[in-house]
Design goal:
By secondary structure, the protein is of the alpha+beta class. It has one domain. 22% of the residues lie in helices and 40% in strands. A five-stranded antiparallel β-sheet has the order 3-4-5-6-7. The protein is extended and about 50 Å long.
């Protein structure tokens, strides 16, 4: 992980290959993971993918993937290897 500081004093994290967790005093938790393209975020046990300007819940990602595979008559078990 690389840590930089911007001109206005904000922290900039780069090359994050392990999840980062942030927890409030009240116990709310946010987990951030960087991917090759985009990010994955978990807030209070709800996962989201942020990629190419879109934010989708994991349920949306899964439903879209299932529709693609079934519409193309592809092997549904292939989705296990694509995630």
């Amino acid at each position: 992980m690389k840590i930089e500081v911007s001109e206005n004093g904000n922290l900039i994290l780069k090359e994050i290959y392990s999840p980062i967790g942030i927890k409030t005093n009240d116990g709310e938790t946010l987990i951030l993971m960087m991917r090759d393209s985009g990010f994955e975020v978990c807030y209070e046990n709800k996962w989201f993918r942020m990629q190419k300007g879109e934010i989708k819940s994991y349920r949306q990602v899964r439903d879209e993937a299932n529709k693609k595979w079934f519409d193309n008559n592809e092997d549904a078990e292939q989705c296990l290897y694509d995630f």
